[in-house]
Amino acid sequence: MTQHIEAEQIESPVTEDLTVFDGIVDRAQAIVARYPQSRSALLPMLHLVQSVQGYVSQAGIMFCSRQLKLSAAEVSAVVTFYTMYKRKPCGEHLVSVCTNTLCAALGGDAIYKTLREHLSEDGKPLGHEETVGTPGEPGSITVEHAECLAACDLGPVLQVNYEFYDNQTPETAVELVDALRRGERPAPTRGAPLTDFKDVSLQLAGFFERPSDVDGPSAATETLRGAQLAQERGWTAPSMPAKVEFPELDKK
Ligand code: FES
């Protein structure tokens, strides 16, 4: 028989200083209030924590654990599963280069290699999730390779703080990171204006401070091309039958 252990029984003692999160307690409670079960609030709450420190620290894990009455182990398991939660302090900007098959073949691998070498400060190329500059300070950049960023029609793509820069080359990618290092914020190809990693983490937690946080076109001409051609040529998909008979399945 499986023994059910209440989260409170297996909580680790708090040895971390949680006062850094004093300013987000109201927001944490607002997130909890969105869901019938408090544990459902974990993903946005981790983004909220990340908006404070630029990563999910052990203190951040303990904060979520306390707010949601989960064990530290349960929170840790989620943090380490999803790549959007960083376990080391991130740069002001997070640059994600798509190196999945299509982008890689179109130049994504070359872009990633070029950026790792270009941003190196000691002659050793930056590794995955490594940072140039002091994490969190202006002009600091964390670089990572990412799997398909769902913009294959615009590859090779990269993202800065999850905003898209389409149809990149090694040269345009270098220009982009140089601008970020200088403190500039070049406009993404689509979507909202560029902000920084902490700010976008707050947005991912569901808090939008300015109307511009959700501003900007989200669709690209290339993405809409098929629908546009179909419209021009009068193509339509066959309608669904009102009733569909499914084959009998063998009883188990
Ligand atoms: S392979 Fe790069 S966006 Fe899909």
Automatic annotation (TrEMBL):
Stored Pfam families: 2Fe-2S_thioredx (PF01257)
This protein's UniProt keywords: 2Fe-2S, Iron, Iron-sulfur, Metal-binding
Gene Ontology molecular functions: 2 iron, 2 sulfur cluster binding; metal ion binding; NADH dehydrogenase activity
Cofactor note: Binds 1 [2Fe-2S] cluster.
Cofactor section: [2Fe-2S] cluster
Renumbered residue ranges of the record's region Disordered: 211-252
Binding-site residues, [2Fe-2S] cluster: 98, 103, 148, 152
Assigned protein family: Belongs to the complex I 24 kDa subunit family.
Protein name: NADH-quinone oxidoreductase subunit E
Origin species: Actinocrispum wychmicini
Lineage of producing organism: Bacteria, Bacillati, Actinomycetota, Actinomycetes, Pseudonocardiales
